[in-house]
Design a protein that fits this description.
Radius of gyration: 17 Å
Number of strands: 5
Distance between the termini: 23 Å
Mean pLDDT: 92
CATH topology: Rossmann fold
Strand order of the largest sheet: 2-3-1-4-5
Number of helices: 8
Largest sheet: 5 strands, parallel
Number of domains: 1
Strand content: 5-15%
CATH architecture: 3-Layer(aba) Sandwich
């Protein structure tokens, strides 16, 4: 009997209003039709403990968490997520597609809120034993258009959705900086294109990667 081939870990990143939820839904339908063994998850979240931390950290408080406290909270959720869901699924031969991962922490708590990105990355790489996504799909969009989408969408928002344009610009630049330094892993996709074209670009990347 041959050994189980490890699945691939794929993350989808981008600022608020970039269309991640829509593209994840389309991708889920596509992979189901292709009968690809895949688990969809999100960060923060994915396990009961991590989902509880998600609810806490995305809530607006009169005295907000410091950037370091916020990063450590996300890290605790990420560790539980890896140990209980992501690593077991990959070892069983399933692919895992995650809405946000370590890149979001580096952007939101590092690039935007000022934590030392080198130390953040070193900390994560130490306790995760160097585990990184195999493929990252970055949905890039002009923040002005993204904010228009958020306004048109309505519904419930979190404190990141409610940030001003300057913050959204910093978020975008943070992701682009990461993509510049990791071009083999991070694939930048024009999220301002028509929805079907964005989906086609995602499918094309995954197909080239053997998925």
């Amino acid at each position: 009997m041959s050994a189980t081939v490890r699945g691939k870990f794929i993350t989808i990143e981008g600022g608020e209003g970039s269309g991640k939820s829509t593209q994840l839904a389309l991708l889920k339908q596509y992979l189901a039709r292709q009968q690809v063994p895949v688990v969809f998850t999100r960060e923060p979240g994915g396990t009961p403990y991590a989902e509880a931390l998600r609810s806490a950290v995305l809530t607006s408080y009169d005295q907000p968490l410091s950037p370091l406290c916020e990063y450590l909270t996300f890290s605790a959720a990420r560790m539980d997520h890896l140990e209980k869901l992501i690593w077991p699924a990959l070892e069983s031969g399933q692919h895992v597609i995650c809405d946000r991962f370590i890149d979001s922490s580096l952007v939101y708590q590092g690039h935007v809120q000022g934590l030392d990105i080198t130390l953040m990355r070193a900390s994560y790489m130490t306790w995760s034993q160097g585990f990184m996504p195999d493929i990252t799909l970055l949905l890039d969009i002009d923040p002005v258009i993204a904010l228009q989408r958020l306004k048109a969408r309505g519904g419930q928002t979190n404190r990141f959705d409610q940030a001003d344009l300057d913050v959204h610009n910093k978020i975008r630049q943070g992701f682009l900086d990461l993509a510049k330094h990791s071009p083999a892993r991070i694939h930048c996709i024009n999220a301002q294109d028509e929805c079907k074209n964005v989906h086609a670009a995602i499918v094309n990347i995954l197909t080239q990667q053997g998925i």
